[in-house]
């Protein structure tokens, strides 16, 4: 088995994939918030805040996972 086979996947690739998914979600966020704002402005604010907090939560959880594995 070569040295390349033993290496874990690059953390940069994982971060890039996460950013692409989150970027797409943030691209859709204004439309979602406008639709929810017609129901309740408070609901739109909660969903928007949840999206922003989820972005940071994903990277916080990923950092914890990497620290435990020693990456």
Question: Layout of helices and strands, plus pairs?
Answer:
Blueprint: H1 3-6, H2 11-39, H3 41-69
Helix pairs in contact: 2-3
Q: What key attributes describe this structure?
A:
single chain; 71 residues; mainly alpha; 0% strand; elongated
Q: What does this entry look like structurally?
A:
There is one protein chain. By secondary structure, the chain is mainly alpha-helical. The protein has one domain (14-69). Helix content is 87%, strand content 0%. The chain has 3 helices and no strands. Helix 2 (11-39) runs antiparallel to helix 3 (41-69). It is elongated and about 45 Å long.
Q: Tally of extended strands?
A: 0
Given the structure, what is the number of helices? 3
Helix-strand sequence: HHH
Shape: elongated
Radius of gyration: 17 Å
Write a short abstract of this structure.
This protein has 71 residues and is an all-alpha fold. The chain is 87% helix and 0% strand.
């Amino acid at each position: 088995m070569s040295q390349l086979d033993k290496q874990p996947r690059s953390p940069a690739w994982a971060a890039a994939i996460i950013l692409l998914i989150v970027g797409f979600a943030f691209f859709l966020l204004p439309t979602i918030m406008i639709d929810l704002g017609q129901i309740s402005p408070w609901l739109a604010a909660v969903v928007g805040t949840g999206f922003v907090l989820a972005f940071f939560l994903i990277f916080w959880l990923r950092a914890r996972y990497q620290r435990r594995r020693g990456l």
